Amino acid sequence: MAAPEDMWQCQTVNCGYIYNPDKGDRKGGIPKGVKFEDLPDDWCCPICGGTKKCFKPLAGPTSTKADCELPTVSESGELTSAATTAKESDQQELKGMEKYVCDVCGYVYDPEVGDPDNDIAPGTKFEDIPDDWTCPICGATKDSFSPES
Ligand SMILES: [Zn+2]
Ligand SMILES: [Zn+2]
After folding, report:
1. Angstrom distance (rounded) from CA 69 to CA 2
2. Model confidence pLDDT, tens digit, residues 117-132
3. Alpha-carbon span 5 to 40, nearest angstrom
C-alpha cells in the first residue's frame, strides 16, 4: 500500500485523478511501482491531459500549491467573454428599435416594419422619421406618439 506522500492528485478543476504508484498508469504505459517523481516529464494526466505540474501529493512537505499548465482553459474563457460582448451590443441595437404607440388611436409604429405606405423604410427608428410624418390611421403628429413600455 502506497503512503499518502506517494499518491499524487491532479489539481485541475473537475479532474481529481490520483496517481497511485502501486497501480502505475496502464494507459500512459507506466508499469506498477513507478514513483510519481520517476515519471517522464512529458507524462500527463490520463483524464484531463494536465502536465505533471498539475499534481500535488496527498500528504507531505512538498504538498504545495500546484502550478498547473492547461492552455486550453484560458482559450475557452476568452471565447465566452467575446460571446457575452456580442450579446450586449445586440441588446443595445434592439433598444434603439423601440416601438412607439399613437396616443390618439393606439396605432403602433414598429421600426422593423416601418410605414411603407408613407415611404418609411423597414428598419427606420422612430427618431429618424421626418417631423412632418403623421399617424397613418388618425393623422396625429409625431408629438402624439409615446414609447411602448
Ligand atoms: Zn487531470
Ligand atoms: Zn393615430
Report:
1. 26
2. 999 999 999 999 999 9
3. 19
